[in-house]
TrEMBL record:
Predominant place of localization: cytoplasm
Ranges where the RING-Gid-type domain occurs: 328-371
A GO cellular-component term linked to this record: cytoplasm
Subcellular location: Cytoplasm
SUPFAM superfamilies attached to this UniProt entry: RING/U-box
Domain RING-type: 328-371
UniProt protein name: Uncharacterized protein
Keyword Kinase applies: no
Residue span, CTLH domain: 149-206
Keyword Zinc appears in the UniProt entry: yes
SMART domains (UniProt xref): CRA, CTLH, RING
Keywords: Cytoplasm, Metal-binding, Zinc, Zinc-finger
Gene Ontology molecular function: zinc ion binding
Length: 385
């Protein structure tokens, strides 16, 4: 609803802007026409057959320009545009609260951990000079241990952009045991890319020799893939018109880069996505909800600052959900350390606070809300996700 309001206000401003521009061009054209006409009349003075007074021509031009009233016409259209612009700004201020500091809460962060996360982010993005400067200024010398690894990763990725697979193949070869342990077929994918490049740029014999040397070792496990690549040998120089043309799709190079990045980070015990990037993106998604809550609780600022758990859910996309979440089917509260999920003997699960309410503060047997089974608090066991 809010976005549609912003769009409607924007559309009104855009319409007024178009009308103002059209009006301005129309007035300019009128003025230009009158000036050109006056110039044409002045030029006829040189012709003895047409004795014309220059002053009278200029006086007539001034009269016509006064009749057109360009300032008044332009001022009117511009005024309407300015009014709509001011309304649009008010809509933006109402929908998008500019002061996001209202959602700020005092949280004690470990500066060492935060510095490590930021340095790792810069290295991951290839901003090595900035990361080195932060390490120096923050006094975090141990963080530099990641630099050489991420430099190697970026050198491999840059080479792939230039269709040079040798650095990637060297890295895969040196980490073959680790990749085999996790069942990765990254090495085959890289050799397949190289094989297709040879088919496009070199001879059939070159491609066949490469296949015998580098693809044959994968035949016992990936025979279907090898047979498909051997079929490509019949289409040397015209692979784009073959049944295997999809092998030329640039998406395969992009996927190879993504997989190398993922495996590289995994071997460094780093997440595929930058933790800083994930935190900022999730924060941007949750910010509107936090701002509304902060405004509602403006009169209870100490209580807002002391909260360990928000009283309302903050909806985020699935990629920001890193662990299972339990919501009590009775109270609709999300489980936490103070109110953990509890397993009843019957197999149903409720939050601890709901069980206490049902048992009248642990003093009596209670009936499960979802089946006829009765239980006591002592029979319930805490669940750990």
């Amino acid at each position: 609803m809010e976005l549609s309001t912003v769009k409607d206000a924007f559309d009104r401003v855009a319409k007024k802007q178009k009308l103002s521009t059209s009006k301005s061009l129309e007035v300019i054209d009128q003025i230009g026409h009158e000036i050109e006409q006056a110039l044409s009349n002045i030029q006829t003075i040189q012709d003895p057959a047409y004795p014309v007074d220059r002053k009278s021509i200029l006086k007539e031009l001034k009269t016509k320009l006064n009749e057109i009233g360009p300032h008044k016409q332009l001022e009117g259209s511009q005024k309407e545009l300015n009014i709509n612009l001011m309304k649009y700004l008010k809509v933006l201020e109402r929908v998008f609260i500019p002061d996001i500091s209202k959602a700020y809460r005092n949280v004690d962060f470990d500066s060492h951990t935060v510095n490590q996360i930021i340095v790792s982010h810069f290295y991951r993005e290839g901003l090595f000079d900035i990361a080195d400067l932060l390490i120096y200024e923050a006094g975090e010398p141990e963080a530099i241990s990641l630099k050489s690894h991420f430099m190697e990763m970026h050198q491999i990725l840059e080479a792939i952009k230039d269709r040079d697979l040798q650095p990637a193949l060297n890295w895969v070869s040196s980490n073959r045991a680790k990749l085999k342990q996790i069942g990765s077929d990254l090495e085959l994918k890289l050799h397949r890319l190289h094989f297709v490049e040879i088919l496009q740029k070199q001879s059939q014999a070159d491609a066949l020799n490469y296949a015998r040397t580098y693809l044959a070792p994968f035949a016992s496990v990936h025979m279907d893939e090898i047979q498909k690549l051997m079929g490509c040998l019949l289409w040397v120089g015209k692979l784009d018109r073959s049944p295997y043309s999809e092998l030329m799709d640039p998406i395969h190079w992009e996927k190879a880069s993504e997989e190398i990045t993922g495996q590289f980070c995994s071997f460094l015990a780093q997440s595929y996505e930058s933790p800083l990037n994930v935190a900022v993106t999730a924060g941007v998604e949750g910010l509107p909800t936090l701002l509304k809550l902060a405004i509602v609780m403006a009169a209870k600022k100490p209580e807002w600052q002391a909260m360990k758990q928000l009283p309302i859910p903050v909806e985020l996309r699935k990629e920001f959900q890193f662990h299972s979440i339990f919501v009590c089917p009775v109270s609709r509260d999300q489980g936490n350390d103070e109110n953990p999920p509890m397993l009843l003997p019957c197999g149903h699960v409720l939050c601890k606070q709901s069980i206490h309410k049902l048992s009248k503060s642990n003093t009596r047997i209670f009936k499960c809300p979802y089946c006829p089974f009765e239980a006591s608090v002592a029979q319930c066991r805490q669940l750990h996700f």
